[in-house]
Design a protein that fits this description.
By secondary structure, this protein is α/β, with parallel strands linked by helices. Helices cover 46% and strands 13% of the residues. It has one domain: Uracil-DNA Glycosylase, subunit E. Strand 5 and strand 6 form a beta hairpin. The longest helix is centred in the middle third of the chain and has 18 residues.
């Protein structure tokens, strides 16, 4: 009988599968497919929208200006990037950094669902409209607009147990609209309290 695979072994297999992926046109233009990075035992997974130029070049999520802000927000609640897991709803950079299309998110959803099953987080924090829309559709929570949904926890059921869905503004939004930064900081403080429950 084959022993159960470790989380790291499962992630390695998922990355190999991702590298063979050609399920949507975004694959053909990608320098790197960005699965995500962080702690596979993290109680929280942050899921943004898509890799940008820097992410496509490095193969790492959130390494541009939005990533620097996310790192600062995490530090503000006593966490480091290494303690959480960070990913996106799509693995390849859309042209011109546009938002991913619904069919691109759907094509990439199998990889994300496998990733979540490996990590089994207690909290899923979708960041930005594309990510929030995907998870609201998945859990049949109705229409979602990030301006209304952010900072409002929703209890949902996953195969590994109850999970809190906690939508956040995307850090890039707080860079372009500075007034959102206070709301994002407040939501992150609320998230820190949820992690203590």
């Amino acid at each position: 009988m084959t022993p159960p695979q470790t989380k790291q072994e499962q992630l390695t297999l998922l990355m190999a599968e991702l590298n063979r992926c050609d399920l949507c046109p975004l694959c053909s233009g990608a320098k790197h497919k960005v699965l995500g990075e962080g702690n596979l035992d993290s109680p929280v997974v942050f899921i943004g929208e898509a890799p940008g130029r820097r992410e496509d070049e490095t193969g790492r999520p959130f390494v541009g200006s939005a990533g620097k802000l996310l790192t600062r927000l995490l530090t503000g609640i006593g966490l480091s990037r290494e303690e959480v897991f960070i990913s996106n709803v799509v693995r390849c950079r859309p042209p011109g950094n546009r938002s991913p299309k619904r069919e691109e998110v759907e094509a990439c959803s199998g990889h994300m669902e496998t990733l979540l099953r490996i990590i089994k987080p207690r909290i899923i924090a979708p960041m930005g409209n594309s990510s929030v829309e995907y998870f609201f559709d998945k859990y049949e929570l109705g229409k979602a607009v990030i301006g209304d949904a952010h900072g409002k926890p929703k209890r949902v059921t996953e195969e590994w147990g109850e999970v809190v869905l906690f939508p956040l503004y995307h850090p890039a939004a707080a860079i372009y609209k500075r007034k959102l930064l206070k709301e994002l900081e407040a939501d992150m403080a609320f998230l820190a309290r949820l992690l203590l429950l």
